Amino acid sequence: MNAQNVFKRYLDNLINNQSEIEEPQLLVYPTIAYAPETTWEIGLSSVYVYYAERDTTNRLSEINSFAFITLENQYGLWFDHAIYTAQDEWFLLGRLRFQSFPLYYHGIGTNTPEDYTARVDANQILVKERFLKKIKKNVFLGVEVDYQSLSAVDFIVNERAVNNFEFPLGSNGSSNLGLGVGIVRDDRHNVLNVRKGFFSEFAVLHSNPSWGSTFNFTSINSDTRFYKPIGKNNVLAAQLLGQFNFGMFLSINLLKWVARA
After folding, report:
1. DSSP reduced 3-state for 140
2. Which CATH architecture best describes the domain 3-257?
3. Quick one: pLDDT at residue 36?
4. Among residues 12, 14, 22, 79, which is most buried (max CB within 10 A)?
5. Model pLDDT, residue 41
6. Which of 171, 197, 173, 199 is nearest to 184 (CA)?
């Protein structure tokens, strides 16, 4: 069987999948993208979805992954999951990022320039996990772990920017492990393709040098999402995302609205 026939069978299986709805499903597909800082990016994505105990009255769990490489020798490996056990007794929500990917640095303060001051090349590891127990219908409480590491950091100054900019804390690399508690309210039945529902998370985490963190600070994280069907084929989605860090530094991400069709 040649490669063309294999691809045609795979495509036909995706379009005309006759599997029972309670059966686990795996989808694998290639991706391609272009951006000025990466040039061409080639990737491979996969999505695995299933119902606990193959019971469709349970919520649909999702595990997805994404691997990519660019023509600028940048690369990454991502994993995300939202796993519900039977009857929502446990909710495991998290993501993992391992990548060598550029970040744009604009400076410190409220009067930073619109154009970036430097491009930051670094190796990044991010692990964020929530282990949550149902305490009442659609409400979960548990522990949260947030690990972030930045190594092999290199600031490449933008030739159009001022050269005497101030380097931020952690410009030589850092590792921070945050431990804390979180509470989540989630009434979405299908996290892969939400048409209607509400999700809200509030968490408090602390990072401390006594357990290996570079800095000593406390984070308060808030993430609220709202989904409402508009007509037959459209969904209005809104997200309010906040991160407040107190200690060695202060950073606030304010508001993001998303509308999707």
Report:
1. strand
2. Beta Barrel (2.40)
3. 79
4. 79
5. 95
6. 199
211-216-218-219 Cα dihedral, nearest 10 degrees: -90
CA–CA dist 226, 236 (Å, integer): 8
SS3 content of the chain, % helix, strand, coil (to 5): 10, 60, 30
Name the pLDDT band for 10 (thresholds 50, 70, 90): low
C-alpha atoms less than 13 angstroms from C-alpha of 91 in its C-beta half-sphere: 31
| Chain-centroid distance, C-alpha 118 | 24
CA distance 103 to 43: 19
pTM of the model: 0.81
CB 245 within 8 A of CB 219: yes
The structure tokens listed for 1 are 């069987």
Return the minimum-mean-pLDDT range out of 40-44, 91-95, 165-169.
Answer: 165-169
- How many whole angstroms from its chain centre is CA 254? 17
Angstrom distance (rounded) from CA 57 to CA 22: 10
**Residue-level pLDDT at 19:** 62
Where exactly are the structural domains of the chain?
3-257
Dihedral (CA of 63, 178, 180, 210) sign:
positive
CB atoms within 10 A of CB 135: 10
Averaged over 114-126, what is the pLDDT?
87
Which has the closest alpha carbon to 19: 44, 41, 50? 50
> What is the helix (H) or strand (E) element at residue 243, kind and residue range?
strand 234-247
CA 93 to chain centre: 10
